[in-house]
Amino acid sequence: MDKVVATALEAVADVPDGASLAVGGFGLSGVPNVLIQALYERGTGSLSVVSNNCGAMESGLAVLLSAGRIARVTGSYIGANKEFARQYLGGELEVEMIPQGTLAERLRAGGAGIPAFYTPAGVGTQVADGGLPWRYDGQGGVALASPPKEVREFDGAQYVLELGIRTDFALVRAARGDRHGNLVFSKSSRNFNPLAATAGRVTIAEVEELVEPGDLDPDAVHLPGIFVQRVVALTPEQAADKRIEKRTVSAPSAREAVND
Prior knowledge:
Elements: H1 8-11, E1 20-23, H2 33-42, E2 47-50, H3 62-66, E3 70-75, H4 82-89, E4 94-97, H5 100-111, E5 116-119, H6 126-129, E6 133-136, E7 142-145, E8 151-154, E9 157-163, E10 167-178, E11 183-184, H7 193-199, E12 200-211, E13 230-233, H8 236-240, H9 254-259
Parallel strand pairs: 1-2, 1-10, 2-3, 3-4, 10-12, 12-13
Antiparallel strand pairs: 5-9, 6-7, 8-9, 10-11
C-alpha cells in the first residue's frame, strides 16, 4: 500500500516515448512541474498530451513543448503560449481543440469507465460537423482536419457524441497526500487534477506535503488512493515554487505612498 517513490525521475522512469499523458493544472495553478521536469531530463518525447492548456510562461508543459517533445495536444486553451501557436500553425504539432467543459467530461467519463456520452456543446459547429484543423501543412493549408461526429436528437434537441478519454499515464499535483495515494487539492489547484488522475491507467502524484495514513480526514479527501499508483513528496523548496501568471494589483500612487 505504500506508494511513495523516492524521486520524480524514478516515478516517470517507465514513461516511454509516444506515451499518452493526462496532465492536471490550469494556467500556473496545480501544475505538476516537478514530474514534467523529470520527463524532460529523461529525454522522453513524441508524447500525446491531454491537458487544459500546454504550459505558460516557459513552465509546466511548455518545457516539453519548447524542446519538441510533444507530438499531439488535446486541450481547450492555447492562451498566451506563443510557442504553442507557432508550432501549431507551422505544422509541427497536432492539436485537437474542444470545448473546456467537454474536455472535463471526457476525462471524467474515461476515468469512470464510460466510453462515450452525448452533449449539446458544439452542435451546429465544426466541433460536431468536422473540419477543425488538427494539423496545418506549414503553408497556411490544413493537412489534417477533425472528422464529423455522430449527432442525435433527444427530446427535440440535438446532441453530439463525445468519447471518454483514457491515457497511459497521468501527472497531477496535490497540496497533501498520504502514502496510500489519497489526495487533497488546494482551492483552484483542484481544477483538472482529479479528472486527469482518474483518466490515467498509471497516475503519478507530486504532493507538497506527505502525511501518514490516517492523518487525512476522509471527508476532506478529493481523490481516493485507488486512482493513484505513485506518490512523490516534494521538498519544501519545490512545494514553495509557485509563480504568478498575471498580477492584478497596481503600484501605489504617490499620494498613497506618502500616506503610508
